[in-house]
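[Q] Does anyone have a clean structure-token version of this?
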Amino acid sequence: MEQNRKSSRRRCPYLDSVDRTVLDFDLEKRCSVFGSNFNVYACLVCGKYYHGGGQRSYAYTHSIEAGHRVYINLETEKFYCLPDGYEVIDPSLDDIRHVLNPRFAREQVSQLDTNRQWSRALDGSCYLPGMVGLNTMAETDFVNVTIQSLMRVTPLRNFFLVPKNYQLCKSQLVHRFGELTRKIWHAGNFKGQVSPHEFLQAVMEASEKRFRISAKSDPVEFMSWLLNTLHGDLKSSQMGRSIIHQCFHVPLQFWILSIPRGTCIMHECLFFFFTLQGELEVVKERHNNENGDDGGAEVGKVIVETINVPFLMLGLDLPPPPLFEDIMENNMIPQVPLLNILQKFNGETVTEVVDPHFARMRYHVTRLPQYLILHMRRFSSNNFFVEKHPTLVNFPVRNLELRDYIPLREHNANERVRSRYDLIANIVHNGKPCEGSYKAFVQRKSDELW
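[A] Here you go.
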């Protein structure tokens, strides 16, 4: 029996028929005939997916009718010759297995940010791992720019490059995000771009179609939803904490060595990303307008409420644009320094709100995150139309020192408060408010180029 088992695991004479240029493992792994996602085989000659492998299965029938002999089981990652049914063992097929499911050793992960070696796809196009383009599928640019920005967050990227870190998590969204991360950073892709199709399928299911293909959405809302959902799915398998919590919420006493000055992802039209964990002190002053007969505060008395809350991103308000254009300066676009609008969070600047009654708010950032996210509130709407704020925001690319503009508290004598950030990504919106598209500008860390 042992001799017969080994004889069935032999080299295949049909390997020359394998066509790597037609293989696309970014597509949803379902049978092209039956639609089942169970026990799916990919034909390595034409690239189509078929259910089964045994007799009377769609894969078996396709092998006889089309004469295509070599297949891979997309779940077990084993190669087979059909209709003969024996497993194919040949090292020349390993590259296909690694494109289907890229693998990274921890030593490789630690060296990604120093890599300057370009890779060449089968079509002759060249790409730098980590800097590959993502296919846009009917208004999904809001997803692509979010993913491209998150790929610059080193601890987050490193976590998802190693599936062992989240193997106990049952969330499809977590596993699809990890799979997409590994494909973006894989050096042996057959194409010079990656399609986030399977990730988008998981997003639509997890969000109950709040975010879906062919429907425009706001990257700010998607970023917030994605990070919170990933955190919620991961914390159940990691005793209440997650890599999202570590990057965007947990205050660190020591700086991560790979990010010596901090990291900042700035979004010009949407949001800026700066992180450590953020903590925000909110002071709300309002007049009591209710009847005080029940023993409550007197009518007209100022009520002051102070709360401390964590934050994922900071919303920055742009100054009102000029109402009238100067004859000599009608082509000039108003500009404002970033540090001017950051003063909203210095604990002294007053912001007036109606929530639901008039109140005066003061915000003070008391603790900075490792990666800071800043959101520019550039769009406003009323009953008639949506308006896009034209003011440009000037910001430094390196050495953004927040301590000079936001008083920071040292919570204990041994804590080193880090407040200097570098820009690693920026998202902008081009076009009209309800149209246009989003684009991401990201930094290549190996040589600090954009």
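[Q] Thanks! Anything notable?
[A] DSSP finds eleven helices and 25 strands in the chain.
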